[in-house]
Amino acid sequence: MNVPHGAPRSGLDPAEVAHRLATDGPNELPRPPRRTARRILLEIAREPMFQLLGLAVFIYLLLGDHAEAGMLLAFLLIIIAITLIQEWRTERVLETLRDMTSPRALVWRDGQQQRIAGRDLVQGDLIELAEGDRVPADAQLLEVNDLSVDESLLSGESLSIAKAPAAQVYAGTMVVAGRAIAQVTATGARSEIGRIGTVLGALEVERTPLQLQTRQLVRWFSWLGLAVSLAVGLLFVWTRGDWLGGTLAGITMAMSLLPQEFLLILTVFMAMGAWRLSQRRVLTRRASAIETLGAATVLCTDKTGTLTRNQMAIEALVRFTPNGPLKWSRGDRLDEASQALLRCGTLASEQEPFDPMERAFHALASTCIEPVPASWHLAHEYSLSPDLPAMTHVWRADGRSSHVVAAKGAPESIARLCRLSEEHQRQVLAEAGNLADQGMRVLGIATADFQGTDWPADQHGFDFRLLGLVALADPIRDNIPRAIEECRRAGIRVVMVTGDHPGTARAIARQAGLDAEAGLMLGKDVAASSDEALRRSVAATTLFARVTPHQKLRIVQALKANGEVVAMTGDGVNDAPSLKAAHIGIAMGGRGTDVAREASSLVLLDDDFEALVQSIRLGRRIYDNLRKAMRFVFAVHVPIAGLALIPLLTGWTLLLFPMHIAFLEIIIDPVCSIVFEAEEEERDVMNRPPRDSAAPLFSAGMIAQSLVQGALVLLMVGLFYWGLLQNGEPEPVARAAAFIALVSANTALALANRSSSPSLKAALRMGNHAMGGMILITAILLATVIGVAPLRQLFGFEIPGLPTIIVAAGIGAIGLSLLLAYKAVMSRIGLFPTASRHESP
Ligand SMILES: Nc1ncnc2c1ncn2[C@@H]1O[C@H](COP(=O)(O)OP(=O)(O)OP(=O)(O)O)[C@@H](O)[C@H]1O
Ligand SMILES: [Cu+]
């Protein structure tokens, strides 16, 4: 049982690594099989839009209209192409995310310890394993320190198994406790798990609430469309006695009503959202997190490393003498007794520490005390536990008859281990409280002697003597007060949940700008509260200190029971249950263990609280934009369906054929709606309360508003068409002019829905370049179908005179002003909901 220390390990050199990587390939398991092109095609064939188009092609063939059939066939191919590209891009995004979330490995290479992606490991690599890691490859243990591993992934049994040196550990299993150094024996498909063929770490692609809502809506509208189309088809047959024509009219109607863009929009917005988050160094592990982010009402954050920099330095040492406490501060000369205190703290730390606290001990020790003699060896150790946050190292010192025992931990725990008199304990804890109140993290240090090797069962078995206290500074990150202030304005309550001393918690909270006076609750009070009482407490408490992971879980559950949408950060193995329980579990990419990362839905690669606030901001923007796009799609269907329907009812010559609808529905509308994704955030995005998470994406109020907008456009274009016909314009001219008017009015609909503000400036501002591009593309496409002779004939168009074209295009401009005026009136009387406030029904 020897802990890794002494000479630095060298590990493989880069040339060797490159060679092995080239011959063995990356340390990756075979990917789950991609969906085959055939399966994707089958899925596309199930889409109603595809079937309707197919049916129309068939009827045109029956009618002998080969050109029309060919044109619609082209649209079918476009649908297939778009779906395949979409599929391929989503797959690629998922794959990159999968790479980034795969376990990492801590290896020695070329004499240096470094953290690399698990896939870059090769056979022969020297790796270190620690609590919370997923073992990245099969490996043989060289040095072991209380290691136990959960092999349930391989054996199915969820038991932790203690491992001794020379034992084998397997890729994919989980280190539940301890540390070890191991040498990689097999990577990738040659590992045990690779041979079994288990698929690991597959990203969850469950259906999110929004997807379910949207699917529901699409289904609903499809039925409605079907019913209306049947009625229209029958009406056509009844009035005009033409079966094939009636079927075509029915198909046209159905296509115009199909809201198939909704699902496309949702998929694209969420995939783009994950990409935008990754640009801010935030990884999305569960798609639902992006939806939920914007609705978060409470943000539970830990302290160390999230609010603070996690760069510790020892600021003060305190010893207790019969004449009272004696304090050493940074910069003073270190007397002998203080040196003993520091040395003991160093002995109680790992020899190659990761914990910044322990690094601070080593850092200070290396400047002013003798190093631990190389002949000393760590004989036994006791780790931190939630019940007793203290750790003890037992050293075998050459030339001494007894072992040297060194302990460090929370001052209360160390006081308990030392069995201090009540008087003495009060004095020590008061001093610890003083230091904590300055925002410092305080540890107690104790020592003992021990004869023999019959180790006591726990740390209480030693005869500890208190040496003193150590205070470490860990300043808060510079950007924290601003980020906290942003949350406050956005109506998000920030709650600090820490394992640290209440004094430290309060001091850091004050510096961060949290409401430090609003009441602090200790972990033990959480434990003593009933669920009912805890629910009441969490509603009014911003600080929780000396909290264990289990109590953290209860806090999350109590907040959830109060109806809050909870985001929660965490990093340790024990945090996994609370991360899972929270609506949005957030793990730290740097500090976080693999276990925590796997339990969470977001990973902050830079461990930075501000990135979290930025993600919330982005989440709100994505949701806003999603709604704007949906609003637009609702609205745009009204004129299309209306113009397909009215001529049938009134007996005018038909304005829209299947190919017009296909052109509008398959090309123009998706182009128009996708650009909402890039829309800038609303000015008040972080100055308004979180949206009501229970409110549906599509409220009746929002749908009604959109339908009115659409009706306005329908009225204008309809009147225009009627006027042209009344004026005696030939039918193809009237159709072309009406089509120009329709497309231009649709663009107006898109512009009018860009912002929640009814001002023209907001509708036309150029921040979103995609919007400008959209207008340009629309214009070019429109010019193509009207300007290119064969297309023009197919679409039943004839080029109208210039004045008519100008009036038609002007319909868009008039439409935009009408739509904005309508919005202004509605918002004046408080009926036009801003993008994401609660909707009035
Ligand atoms: N390496 C260590 N050695 C000795 N004591 C430790 C060590 N790490 C933590 N402790 C003690 O355990 C307490 C709880 O630690 P824990 O990691 O749960 O929370 P924390 O790091 O203090 O705060 P946060 O939850 O904000 O990250 C610490 O305040 C400290 O007293
Ligand atoms: Cu549609």
Automatic annotation (TrEMBL):
Pfam families: Cation_ATPase_C, Cation_ATPase_N, E1-E2_ATPase, Hydrolase. It comes from Castellaniella daejeonensis. Its main location: membrane. It is found in: Membrane. The keyword Membrane applies. The chain crosses the membrane at residues 44-63, 69-88, 217-238, 258-277, 629-649, 697-721, 773-795, 801-822. NCBIfam families: ATPase_P-type. This is HAD-IC family P-type ATPase. Residues 3-65 form the Cation-transporting P-type ATPase N-terminal domain. Keywords: ATP-binding, Membrane, Nucleotide-binding, Translocase, Transmembrane, Transmembrane helix. InterPro entries: ATPase_P-typ_cation-transptr_C, ATPase_P-typ_cation-transptr_N, ATPase_P-typ_cyto_dom_N, ATPase_P-typ_P_site, ATPase_P-typ_TM_dom_sf, ATPase_P-typ_transduc_dom_A_sf, ATPase_P-type_domA, HAD-like_sf. Signal peptide: none annotated. It is a multi-pass membrane protein. SMART domains: Cation_ATPase_N (SM00831).
